[in-house]
Write a structure and sequence with these properties.
five-stranded parallel β-sheet; alpha/beta; Rossmann fold; six-stranded parallel β-sheet; 3 domains
Length: 431
């Protein structure tokens, strides 16, 4: 993890410092994913079997997880983990219930009432990664708001293990959320299956979930196709940006950087500080802690894409963070709330020394499915609203039409849309 001084960098190099790592050349990635989508759209389950054999080395006769496999998973997951998942689920429910949208109806003019009603999206598809590090927490993060939103049907796709079964902890988490339609399909092919449907997997109206660059690219491609599904957001490789001041604990900061670096070799972590000594101490601590990690090799590769940047002041650090728009932002500051109003773009913010990003990943209550790769400039993390449709309604009495009708007629005429104006005038003249 190299160190740089922001004020000594050219403008061109500053942009380079904030570039995300690239998995493959964009054209290669786009073409590879397009071929997978085309295969699945054309050949359904047959393509899924071939792709699962190719990428996972497993021959599957059935993709759907059976009741027997759910039972085996329940028996294989220890009680401590089950209790922790229940605990996390309860806090997720509290946070999502508190933040969910509400219906309303107001009088916008005498005799005119307008409102909003909410409906769960019909069929939603959840993608839960399970590569080198299975993520049962993602099943909770997606399953809880989907249940609160009252979607008609919820399915979940997750890669198979080498034994032909899904990760047991993912299955237990899914069942805790009431999800029983789970399919052992991963990668871009899972996204394609949920987008267009196969003999086994239902077509979904919207697809949710993080993943690697192939999964993210597949979501983006299917969402632009005719009849394709909506998607939650671009959610690819994980990232964290830490802003730390003079009083920050280098042990804590190093652990936060490594907690994201161990996600995958394509993850990125960035440290910004106005204290050169702190940066040096964090660097030493990163090396020390890295050597103790089971996923040392993975984190080490991610650190090649990462950097520590010395800034002149915290204002510069905040400006850089807003430009980068991190998935996770940790404010390891003495008074983090003092700068909160200045933060414009981030997926999720962690305030102070005792709010590690890991709590947000698992059990604080907030959602960990967040925009990455700078998408936090325009996207928000997953919430109940992500799983709902907001439908406007209006009721107009005869007097209400007379009160506001002329307004509509004036605007319609200005736009040259006479039929619009007539639909109002005819009613006004009939009253």
């Amino acid at each position: 993890m190299k160190t740089y001084n922001w004020n000594q960098c050219t403008e061109a190099f500053k942009k380079e410092l904030l570039q995300r790592p690239i998995q493959a050349t964009q054209k290669e990635l786009t073409d590879n994913v397009a071929r997978i989508i085309e295969q699945v759209a054309a050949d359904g389950d047959t393509a899924l079997r071939a792709l699962t054999r190719r990428f996972d080395g497993v021959e599957l006769s059935s993709f759907q997880v059976s009741e027997e496999e759910f039972n085996r998973a329940e028996n294989s997951v220890d009680d401590e983990l089950k209790t922790a998942m229940l605990d996390a689920k309860s806090r997720l429910e509290l946070w999502h219930e508190a933040g969910k949208p509400s219906e309303f109806e107001i009088e916008t003019a005498e005799g005119v009432r307008c409102g909003r009603i909410l409906r769960g999206i019909g069929t939603v598809g959840l993608y839960v990664p399970a590569g080198s590090a299975p993520l049962p927490s993602t099943a909770l993060m997606l399953g809880v708001p989907a249940a609160i939103a009252q979607c008609d049907d919820v399915i979940l796709c997750t890669p198979t293990r080498s034994n032909g079964e899904a990760d047991p902890a993912v299955l237990v988490a899914a069942k805790l959320c009431g999800i029983t339609k789970v399919f052992k399909v991963g990668g871009a092919q899972a996204i394609a299956a949920m987008a267009f449907g196969t003999e086994s997997i239902p077509r979904c109206d919207k697809i949710f979930g993080p993943g690697n660059s192939y999964v993210t690219q597949a979501k983006q491609q299917v969402s632009t196709m005719p009849g394709g599904p909506a998607i939650d957001m671009p959610a690819g490789p994980s990232e964290v940006l830490v802003i730390a001041d003079v009083g920050a604990n280098p042990v804590f900061v190093a652990s936060d950087l490594l907690s994201q670096a161990e996600h995958g070799p394509d993850s990125q972590v960035i440290l910004l500080s106005n204290d050169a000594q702190l940066i040096a101490n964090v660097g030493l601590e990163v090396k020390k802690q890295l050597a103790t990690l089971p996923r040392e090799a993975v984190a080490e590769k991610a650190l090649l894409n990462s950097r520590a940047i010395e800034v002149e002041n915290l204002e510069d650090a905040i400006a850089i963070s807003n430009q980068y728009a991190p998935e996770h932002l940790i404010l390891a500051l003495r008074n983090p709330r003092d700068v909160l109003s200045q933060i414009k773009s981030a997926g999720s913010i962690f305030l102070g020394d005792y709010a590690p990003e890991s709590l947000g990943d698992y059990c604080s209550g907030t959602n960990h499915v967040l925009p990455t790769n700078g998408a936090a400039r325009a996207y928000s993390g997953v919430s109940v609203a992500s799983f709902q449709k907001s439908i406007s309604i209006q009721t107009v009495s005869q007097s209400g039409l007379n009160n506001i009708g002329s307004c509509a007629v004036t605007i319609a005429n200005a736009e040259g849309l006479q039929a619009h104006a007539n639909s109002v005038l005819l009613r006004m003249s009939a009253s």
